[in-house]
């Protein structure tokens, strides 16, 4: 039960008794996802960090808050699968498109898109909620494949960082669903 209702019209409705099917996993509730606590942001490139919120090793997917405190770059890469994004603060875009995203802007990137992510200097850090299905395929300046990054790389990066900052590597496992 969440916070008790006061006068809300639904106050007498009973919650479902059998919430989870026998093999279902528990939900994730993560308060303050786009926290200011920098320890939670795993360095992803030299200028951009990622706070993992939810990770599915089986589906090669993750949700995160992508953050850059000032100008930032995630160099050119290609997505064989879709990407969803919702902008919380700051200003960002892709060199390949003509829009610039700010707070409240939603973006859907179709499977088969390559792009170069840039964060602008802004009053607030760039904070974007992403839902990514891996892998990212890094591209060289000619558009040829130059390595990959998938959920397993993401997990390894996050574990190493959380271990280093004292949160503990096991924190990452708690995000698996
Ligand atoms: Fe991307």
Show unreliable segments.
Answer: none
H-E order: EEEEEEEEEEEHH
Report the helical percentage: 10-25%
Strand order of the largest sheet: 1-2-3-9-5-7
Q: Estimate the mean pLDDT confidence.
A: 97
N/C terminus separation = 22 Å
Determine the number of helices (DSSP H or I, runs of at least 4 residues). Answer: 2
Strand element count = 11
Report Rg: 18 Å
Please give the largest β-sheet.
Answer: 6 strands, antiparallel
Which ions, cofactors or small ligands are bound in this entry?
fe (ii) ion
Strand content: 35-45%
Provide a descriptive summary of the structure in words.
The chain is mostly beta strands and 177 residues long. Helix content is 11%, strand content 36%. It has 2 helices and 11 strands; from the N terminus they run E-E-E-E-E-E-E-E-E-E-E-H-H. The protein has helices spanning 151-165, 170-173, and strands at 42-43, 49-56, 61-68, 72-79, 83-89, 92-94, 106-109, 113-119, 126-133, 136-139, 145-149. The chain has a 6-stranded antiparallel beta sheet with strand order 1-2-3-9-5-7, with helices on one face. Strands 6-8-4-10-11 form a 5-stranded antiparallel beta sheet. Strand 2 (49-56) and strand 3 (61-68) form a beta hairpin. The chain is globular. The model has no long low-confidence stretch (mean pLDDT 97). The structure holds fe (ii) ion (FE2). Fe (ii) ion binds at residues 77, 79, 83, 115, 117, 136.
